[in-house]
């Protein structure tokens, strides 16, 4: 019989006010192994009872044969029997009674052996089979849940390590990284996988709680079956002899005095540091901490909703946009990190882009979509993207942050309608990047470049351009125009 093992790890109940590790240190299969070991103990206990009934049955069969030998001692008529009266009540009748009763005792032992093998032993054999089936159910149910948790945790750990690598690259290379390796994107990928992991952990936790609760009922059933089998055993062997009745009665009485929940309560008390507390709260992503979670490369300079004009329908679509310290302008369908993997629909590397002037709620950015990586970037064409914010103030703030990161700044105004003389040049007020003439807004100043800064729309029309300092290298986002929500609209 396997010796019991002493648990060496301790499970600390979760708390809603304590930050938790993304990858907990406990073994996900610890509870399953404990229950499997407990089922093994119950199976061995039932095996002991099966062996006891089998040995008793063989002993009863052997006793039947031994009483047949005893019967032979009185089978022949008494010698000089003619000296005794053959009527009942005399000495001859006494020996006839001895022979009949001895034959009855022998037959009774054979009958007892037959009943033990046919009626009592199957009770414990069926219980043995139930315990084995319970072990298979535990392995296929909770065991698979533990494997799913381990797989989800491995995926989360892999992306956390990936974030650590690229945040280190961000710090060492001055922020020049690819869009796919942007720490902001990687962090959102971690949150997506972490959400899946937490779901698997909570599902496995709920499965283990169900198993834990079902074990109490199963153990009560095991003890009831043992009590029932032992009761039937007592009725069979109690006819053998009154002297053995007390011993068997005491044996069975001891088994019947065991409360149904006695073993279970003692088991819970001994292992309360390993078993799950059903009243403890489930894990939440908001309480989990992981390395580089608050790294400056993961914090957006500005984030919020903008409208972008479509290429075909020419209507505005609202999406979620982010400017990261890595100088990328990412487009997402939504700001939800959990519904699906937050992969950018569009990524512009702003140092390779040209930003036009802001006009009211609108501004344009011209550049290549680099969200498909190096190969996609090689074949992609530059596009001029027209954006519209909800308010002019919001547009100014977005434009200012994009201007500080952009490679070039032009005075091209979106949807300009005032005619002016065309002027060629890359950064002239009327020139475009491809040499075609544009119509700038009447109030926009000329000669704006990234190093000198660009006057905001609020100062347009004054006597000269007002220099605006570049964004700090640390990537700190400017204050938002919306009270209480920096950088979001």
Briefly say what this structure is.
Residues 299-407 form the PH domain. This protein has helices at 30-72, 91-140, 142-173, 183-237, 242-256, 262-270, 373-379, 392-405, and strands at residues 20-21, 288-289, 302-309, 316-323, 328-332, 346-349, 354-355, 362-367, 383-388, 408-409.
Structure explained in plain terms:
This protein is α+β, with helices and mostly antiparallel strands and 489 residues long. The chain has two domains: 26-273, Arfaptin homology (AH) domain/BAR domain (Substrate Binding Domain Of Dnak, Chain:A, Domain 2), CATH 1.20.1270.60; 299-457, Pleckstrin-homology domain (PH domain)/Phosphotyrosine-binding domain (PTB) (PH-domain like). Helix content is 46%, strand content 9%. It has helices spanning 30-72, 91-140, 142-173, 183-237, 242-256, 262-270, 373-379, 392-405, and strands spanning 20-21, 288-289, 302-309, 316-323, 328-332, 346-349, 354-355, 362-367, 383-388, 408-409. It has an eight-stranded mixed beta sheet with strand order 6-5-4-3-9-8-7-10, covered by helices on one side. A two-stranded parallel ribbon has the order 1-2. A hairpin with a 4-residue loop joins strand 4 and strand 5 (328-332). The longest helix has 55 residues, at 183-237. The chain is rod-shaped, with a radius of gyration of 43 Å.
